[in-house]
Amino acid sequence: MDLSAIDPVILIASLMVASTPILLAATGELIVEKSGVLNLGVEGMMITGAICGFAASVQTGSPALGFLAAMIGGAALSMIFGLLTQVLMSNQVATGLALTLFGLGLSALIGQGYAGMKPPPTRPLDLGVLSDLPVIGKIVFSHDAMVYVSLALVALVWAFLRYTRAGLILRAVGESHEAAHALGYKVVRIRLMAIGFGGAMAGLGGAYLSLIRVPQWTEGMTAGAGWIALALVVFASWRPWRLLLGAYLFGGITVLQLNLQAAGVAVPAEFLSATPYLVTILVLVLMSADRSRAALHAPADLGKTFHASS
């Protein structure tokens, strides 16, 4: 066992990369849940985005078009959920679970011809002298554009929910769709837009996995990342900045367990691989222990179906 081989600077830089796909998906789901909708299909939308982005990137040679295709694929899948739950009034939990199963099957079908291929590389941003700064340059200024996009997205979502009229309307729909409807707001339309945004962000997170984090296509490569994103929204008490903290916590544990395995720590590799998920469950249990605090920030109408006749 040689723990001296673990470089803390590289460890911190790596956790930012490992956290990005989960942060993107969780930020999208935060907006969805703020509108009062519970979409458990994040895993299915992520894996669909992963294969759509990978296929488009390989076919066009452009990672940017790959990310765009991933957003379209994730949003399209989310619209199926939106149609079923907001128009046809199906149960949100059951529909979300079905969406995950559908996404996993669809991605496996589309991805049959892409196994073993490599996508065009996505280069880190050239930030000049900033990248050459000691320690901080490697940690903060040596990443690809999507890492910074995910951070900017958290800030934009926070500002949108806190300072804009549209954000206030979205939160009002999530708190009481009947009251929002009585004030003349189009509840179904607002929720469909939120669902579409959440699907696009989940697809973007999936594409980050297949194009940058693990630049190849592997069936089921999201490996539960969508479920972790769902858990992080609860962990963050539906607050954007806490979402960032939770994503980096999970990413840090993921990277740490990989480094511990490489260092030859005398712990079964299977246990180390399960550590990020065990820690996530533990945090959720601790958060749930104080029900009043968790409920304080949860949208009041989360998961409830809106009937226009009401």
From TrEMBL:
Keywords: Cell membrane, Membrane, Transmembrane, Transmembrane helix. InterPro entries: ABC_transp_permease. The chain crosses the membrane at residues 6-25, 37-58, 64-84, 96-115, 135-161, 192-211, 217-236, 243-260, 266-287. It is a multi-pass membrane protein. It is found in: Cell membrane. Pfam families: BPD_transp_2 (PF02653). Its main location: membrane. This is ABC transporter permease. It comes from Rhodovulum visakhapatnamense.
